[in-house]
């Protein structure tokens, strides 16, 4: 990769957060209501950034306050955490600790003091990272005053709370408006999960799809020591008859949506589970049923009731308090005894506990609603279940307890995956984004006329081998006259993330969601091709498709964010399912395109959509004739574009769904795999067309 340092990149990054007690470790989480997880995030992020040599200075900006109870360090104007990392505390004139409305009322004074501080400096920061919408408002004012661009991380979004049934009060409505302003003004938005990126953020009116970036945060878990494990044992021992049994562990606050009762029911009703394992619930810290909050008390009462009903005495532990080290110890204990971690939530925005379980090597059974879908699919460390289906929860736990190989694979996958979710990786990706934001020339230019159009699939065609990806990127950097398009099954947001992650060239045009969406990149970001959308919409009846396929055995819908305007996607369990899908659609006279990829991913699209149709649409708009079109792919959803293109390339790692194309006129099957194979195919095309044109001249 190009070294940014050589290009003169030595960034000064300023991270802003207004609420909470931000300080160097040890942070006292929970000391105020606002002293929560975002502080781990900021410290992890900024420490990692400060370790890089293309970063000159990492600076965290927050409010200064003087309150003995909360710690005197919050009154220190500058606290160095390492030579390149400092916390700068800005004195707004009010030295009290503030939360909520009072914090909002103090903002104008804070901004004035901060801008004054910045103006007195020899060197201004290059980029600001704002945490939460209030800091984004500060960042916008800095941008207006000093022209410094900013990146916004929402951490949690109000609109989703409203949709989940929260009361529509002024506070929430204002917050949503502030979030929308932040989304509209930020040069980039960083969020953690696909649900946040593709469902929550995209629901805001000011969103621009090309500004959303998913970057996985680092994992902050610490390894558990022997004494942590002993402490955990002591915590649960008084509850349990037979301590030696494997632990089924759940860690979640005692609120309804976490559905702990679902797990207790699954355990209580299953003789097998009760016989084989102990259930350990860490349901937050509770004050006692007479004092705690109403919802917590109700949830705990229900759990106790279920324990009575099923007579679970001696096989379930539910300690009222726990410390960080006991939690660590419990995860380790669950791993040691070959137990299972369960998150049965009715909806889970991200699911950090699943990453923690992975870190400690505990396989998981997790709700498929919300963020866990991403995490479990990425880490491959357990089973997703419908949280309302108690039998499914039970079966998934028993399966993991029973199947040694499955348990081992899940434990190892989770452990290695979670250990690679580091803040250094995060920092690497942050810098790629920062580079684009600070130096917008980096963004692709849309030039007027092109000689060729290369349309390539992404996964396993351009990704899969770093060296090949580097070579094809270098190749395209030299070919200004060729338009480059990505055609992928992924959503636009995920496709952008993968292109950045693999340092692939920025395409002129993006064909996404299996050729059901087209985006053109221009000077101010991406624009959806509405002509194409109008065209394919004509005979698309998604509700009817859903209904027709509702109860096909062996057909499971993919996550909700995979269901797009012109795409319904499923997992296929058994053979024969595809035929059944086609039969049902035909029976209901629904014209739709059915595409199977990698043997188990099934997409249903409008009849006139697909990568092939999208490719022809793009070629027409760019006025590139079909003879100068090159299509490259590896799997089922590439079939249509490879079969209609006169110059197709299949990389060596192509999957069975494409076998019938071998031997087709103009098709080149590369010797090499992945991007190296794609490049081989393009080079072969150019050699062939040079040969043809010299033969024509000679003739
Ligand atoms: C991508 C999409 C998925 C689709 C698959 C095959 O993985 O995310 O929804 O089924 O491509 O086209
Ligand atoms: Mg592919």
Automatic annotation (TrEMBL):
Residue ranges of every copy of the Glycosyl transferase family domain listed in the record: 239-411
Gene3D superfamilies: 3.90.1070.10, Glycogen Phosphorylase B (3.40.50.2000), HAD superfamily/HAD-like (3.40.50.1000)
Residues covered by the Glycosyltransferase subfamily 4-like N-terminal domain: 73-219
One Gene Ontology MF term: sucrose-phosphate synthase activity
UniProt keyword terms in alphabetical order: Glycosyltransferase, Hydrolase, Transferase
E.C. no: 2.4.1.14
InterPro entries reported for this sequence: Glyco_trans_1 (IPR001296), Glyco_trans_4-like_N (IPR028098), HAD-like_sf (IPR036412), HAD-SF_hydro_IIB (IPR006379), HAD_sf (IPR023214), SPP-like_dom (IPR006380), SPS (IPR044161)
Listed PROSITE patterns: PROKAR_LIPOPROTEIN (PS51257)
Family membership: Belongs to the glycosyltransferase 1 family.
Cited PANTHER family: SUCROSE-PHOSPHATE SYNTHASE 3-RELATED (PTHR46039:SF5)
Protein name, entry field: sucrose-phosphate synthase
